[in-house]
Amino acid sequence: xxxxxxxxxxxxxxxxxxxxxxxxxxxxxxxxxxxxxxxxxxxxxxxxxxxxxxxxxxxxxxxxxxxxxxxxxxxxxxxxxxxxxxxxxxxxxxxxxxxxxxxxxxxxxxxxxxxxxxxxxxxxxxxxxxxxxxxxxxxxxxxxxxxxxxxxxxxxxxxxxxxxxxxxxxxxxxxxxxxxxxxxxxxxxxxxxxxxxxxxxxxxxxxxxxxxxxxxxxxxxxxxxx
Amino acid sequence: xxxxxxxxxxxxxxxxxxxxxxxxxxxxxxxxxxxxxxxxxxxxxxxxxxxxxxxxxxxxxxxxxxxxxxxxxxxxxxxxxxxxxxxxxxxxxxxxxxxxxxxxxxxxxxxxxxxxxxxxxxxxxxxxxxxxxxxxxxxxxxxxxxxxxxxxxxxxxxxxxxxxxxxxxxxxxxxxxxxxxxxxxxxxxxxxxxxxxxxxxxxxxxxxxxxxxxxxxxxxxxxxxxxxxxxxxxxxxxxxxxxxxxxxxxxxxxxxxxxxxxxxxxxxxxxxxxxxxxxxxxxxxxxxxxxxxxxxxxxxxxxxxxxxxxxxxxxxxxxxxxxxxxxxxxxxxxxxxxxxxxxxxxxxxxxxxxxxxxxxxxxxxxxxxxxxxxxxxxxxxxxxxxxxxxxxxxxxxxxxxxxxxxxxxxxxxxxxxxxxxxxxxxxxxxxxxxxxxxxxxxxxxxxxxxxxxxxxxxxxxxxxxxxxxxxxxxxxxxxxxxxxxxxxxxxxxxxxxxxxxxxxxxxxxxxxxxxxxxxxxxxxxxxxxxxxxxxxxxxxxxxxxxxxxxxxxxxxxxxxxxxxxxxxxxxxxxxxxxxxxxxxxxxxxxxxxxxxxxxxxxxxxxxxxxxxxxxxxxxxxxxxxxxxxxxxxxxxxxxxxxxxxxxxxxxxxxxxxxxxxxxxxxxxxxxxxxxxxxxxxxxxxxxxxxxxxxxxxxxxxxxxxxxxxxxxxxxxxxxxxxxxxxxxxxxxxxxxxxxxxxxxxxxxx
Lengths: 226, 749
Known about the structure:
The structure holds two protein chains of two kinds.
Chain A lengths: L3 E6 L6 H10 L3 E6 L10 E4 L19 H11 L4 E4 L1 H9 L5 E3 L7 E9 L15 E8 L3 E3 L2 H9 L3 E6 L10 E5 L5 E4 L19 H13 L1
Parallel strand pairs in A: 1-2, 1-3, 3-4, 4-11
Antiparallel strand pairs in A: 5-8, 6-7, 6-9, 9-10, 10-11
Chain B lengths: L5 H6 L14 H11 L5 H10 L2 H4 L4 H9 L7 E3 L6 E6 L2 E9 L1 H6 L1 H18 L3 E11 L5 H21 L3 E8 L8 E11 L14 E6 L34 H16 L5 E4 L4 H12 L3 E5 L12 H6 L5 E6 L4 H10 L4 E8 L4 E5 L2 E6 L1 H5 L15 H6 L11 H12 L8 H4 L10 E3 L6 E4 L7 E7 L2 H6 L1 H18 L3 E10 L6 H21 L3 E7 L3 E2 L2 E2 L3 E10 L16 E5 L10 H7 L11 H16 L5 E4 L4 H13 L3 E3 L7 H6 L6 E5 L4 H11 L3 E7 L3 E4 L3 E4 H9 L1 H6 L1
Parallel strand pairs in B: 4-5, 9-12, 17-18, 24-27
Antiparallel strand pairs in B: 1-2, 2-3, 3-6, 4-6, 7-10, 7-11, 8-10, 9-11, 12-13, 14-15, 15-16, 16-21, 17-21, 19-20, 22-25, 22-26, 23-25, 24-26, 27-28
Keywords (chain A): ATP-binding, Cytoplasm, Glutamine amidotransferase, Hydrolase, Ligase, Nucleotide-binding, Purine biosynthesis
Pathway (chain A): Purine metabolism; IMP biosynthesis via de novo pathway; 5-amino-1-(5-phospho-D-ribosyl)imidazole from N(2)-formyl-N(1)-(5-phospho-D-ribosyl)glycinamide: step 1/2
Pfam families (chain A): GATase_5
């Protein structure tokens, strides 16, 4: 048996099909979810993929946060359902306050697309248990609004509670505070990050590395083998 | 202002009309009157003026472009040829690929961001209109001198526009070119290419047939932007009371385009359209007249139903507006409801604006009054055709006599080393990653190769690993020295790049960027380049599937270098077999394929070291190119090479440096006995590539080259952390990387 993983499509979502593929490669069952539909179709977890939902014209993620589907996602996330926000999905999660902080324009003001080294700081979340704490991975990064910010108190709290999940290595690509690339909520079921694990699941395409597959196999273990 | 109806036009034959301001010539205006048997209405005049513009009608280039059809090679792969929104090629396994390259040069100089952004948007809609999902884009770009202050205005704007629009559409940007030359100072070339994939049965064409079928306009509302973008019109010509100085440049909304793509693909999946056309240059004038002209001929449009951004737009302006992100579909009445439902799902505005009629006239109404009554073919397909005079310029002989092979050469090994670093760090030869890192190359998860590889390659089928590769190349310096050879060299380089990646070249698209057709010298360059390209395609067996001509790229009397840009599409049965450029394994043997002659005319070395352009470009041998391609493809398929890189501008040293840097490994290189080290490193002889061969494959590989008669010279080995040109000099990789990668950020960041 396997588990059902919902992948939400907002207007302007770009990486939904890629995320479905990554879910499938990991041995999970991808279920497309539509932003207007409150029904999550009994999925066991949800991924909010990357893109430019609603064009990001107001502020990245600011409109999607009000989509009907997000009402149910917020509710179930609070009940412990695993939720992963990638790039624009991370931005949506901060807008919903499932995760603290916000994303600003990159400090160099350019879109940046490159392979990015990360250190896994927390290997106890629903999405990172297949990694080891301190492990270094490399997955694609591509965004223009990727600079993570939060007030000092929040940052201290995140660090103290071990909720910084990923940190940038080999040069901070966008000016994110304390090199933060991804964080989790206190329960460890909701994770958001700017780089793209779904683009690093096959040796043939993208960067040629499969360092991102662990996100989805972690989930598989949690949902199926637990 | 009274509405200029057809009836009114018939009653007022002597009314003065602004045909000259609209860019029409007197005889063209007279011809319109003859076609209609009366003076045109304002709306008709607007339509003819944009559709008969150089951009839409190809009136100066048509007589030359015919060769692409006349000399087309026999090729079973071509499913749809020239004349549709884009050509379509059979790549096997039931898949068809459509691709095209187009220019957005003039708008990108005036407004770099929006000009470049809408260039991407336009070519993507062309591909979409064929029935395909767009899967990749590429951008061949040319700017003025890298250190010119205006380049700092134009380039970052263009790059941000391409990224801002393309990234938001979710299309991987997998290649292209960035070239600097003072000749493009006032006329940057912003060409954009898109590739799309579909199944054979999904091919759609731009035609309106079936009496009673509905004409649906969907996508963005129509605004006052881009009016007369294709002609010379300013909007105030029609009514002085309106706000003036509306930009002739369109403004893009990539989010709207993304919705339009997904919405249109869903509409295709449910088989809801009979014919479809995107709205680009000349807007509704083009879409309605082309659909009707290519179909049965009759169409009736209620123009007042067009959703507007600005309610004060006149019917003439609505017909000419080039507002982006719009499409026009022909839909059977029984399918209209479902069509509109899908549009509603994607928040896309859709409006039935008319229907196909059984007549042979395109009739347009404004609040019930008829303002257009024309035979659509006369608007769309039977525009004026000019036999422009052309003549070989009187300076051509002197230019060719100014032999680059006679320029002063480095006299010591130390000097040769300095010049190598100088060339590799020059703006044209330096790494462009500062630019290409602003484009998303990973999205869609099918990118197998992207810049700086020889070609961009995407996987088409996840189960079979079928893939396609595309490369774009052009060299204005070569074409200036000899336009016929220059066009063939662009074709040969692009063809070679695709083959070096392991894909089999199938077909081409082109973007022909030239100066003013009213200058006989420019027209000669154009005639020579098209002749060269048509002859070359015939010999290589790669048909021209379509493309674009951009003329008037000149400031005052000074034209740009003639710049034919060629995009070659290739297919690879299994993308696992692709060949990258990186030298990544120590001990692999380096072989130079092809012959190196003393050919420095138009070379990067002559430009960087001597600021010189003269002599003849490298000789073209298309038979050799074919043989080289066959060897590269076989070697890739049978796993005989680990890396391959084509040799072009910058010569052997450029290719070796790029491959070493890409793989993070050095190389020991031995100059062949009969070759001068300088010529060995810098000559730009065509028909060459360098490959890295695992020792276990050496015999098999050299046997194959020997059997087929391709010269293969062992020139060294992948080894160490420096490029060591034995007996001459060495350069540590770190020094090389700094030289190659620091230039562009230093100039532009």
